[in-house]
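Worked problem 6 (solution included).
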Amino acid sequence: MRMAGWYMSVGGADLHQVFAPGRVNLIGDHTDYMGGLVFPMAIDRGIRITGKIGGTHLAVRSDREAAHASVLLPVTKPEVIAPSWARHLAGVAAEMGTTSGFTGQVTSDLPVAGLSSSAALQVATALMLGHQGSPLEIATLCQKAEHRATGVPCGIMDQLTIAAGIVGHALLIDCYQLHIVPVPVPEDVEIVIVHSGQHRELVASDYALRRAQCEAAEDLIGPLRLASLDEVDEIDDPVLQARARHVVTETKRVGMFAEALTAGDYTEAGEQMRDSHNSLGRDFEVSTPVLDALVDDLNSVPGVYGARLTGAGFGGAVVALTRPGTLSLGFVATASAGARVL
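Solution. The predicted structure is:
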C-alpha cells in the first residue's frame, strides 16, 4: 500500500474524528497493578485520530512517528507488528476482533513523555473502531491490548483515567474494586507538569520486574492493598520488603492526599507528594538522579506545595502542586473530560 496515496485521500463528508486525553497522576504510582489507590486526572491535551472508516487495514500515519502503520485485519499477533508504535493499534484491533479498519492521521499535542500517550492512542483507536462500551469496558479492553501487544504488565489506571475523565475533577480510583470517586480540583491551585528531559520506554525498563517483586511479596504476606507495615517488616528479603513498603505506604498517602486537597490543606497535600517521591526513589528504586534534582529544585521554589515524579518513573515527567502563577517552566494541566467521539 502506498502511504502517500491513502493519506492524501482522507477528507470529505464521511470523515470521523475521536479524541483521547493524556493523564497525569498526582499521587499513587505502582499501586494500581496491586489493587491499591491512585489519584490521576485526564488533562486537556491528548491524541486525536481523524480518518475514514472501512477497509481491510489500519492505515495510519502519525505526526510523531517517521514510519507509517499499515496493519492487515484481522490481527492475531499484535506483538510482531512493525513499526512498534503500531502495536498499540493492532492490540486493540486484536482484542476487539475487528475485520474493518480505517484510514487516518494521528496527531498529538502532548508536549512531554510520561503522560500516557500510548494508552490514549489505544483508547482513541477503540473509539475509532466503533467500541461503544462503558469507560470501564473500554479501559479493560485497552489494558488487555497493552499486555498482549507490548508485554508491559500495566495496571488499569492510565486507560481508565483516559476513558472516564471528568472536567474539573481528579479521580480517586480503587483499582481493586474499580470504583471511581471524582474529586474537584480546587481553583486556587495549579497542577504543573515539567519534563525531566530524560526519555524512557516502559518496554525497555524494569517495570515488569517491579511488578514481579510486588507479587512475590504478596505471596508471602497476602494482598499488599490490605497489608500493615508490621506484616511488611516480616518479609526477610530486603528488596521485596522495600517494594511492599512502598505499595502499602503509597496507598495510604493517596487517601491522605485526597483528604488534604479536599480540605484545602495544600501544605499537607504537598508533604504527601514529597514523601511519595522519596518512597519511589528509596523503596521502589524507579527515580533517577535527573528526576531527583528536578524535584528538589521545584520543591525549593516558594509557592510550590510539593513535587514528585509522575507515572512509572525511570525518567519522564514531574508533577507539582503550586499556587497559581508560581512556575514559569513546564505547563499547567487542566482536568479534562474523558475520551470521546467528536
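Discussion: Residues 1-10 have pLDDT under 50 and may be disordered.
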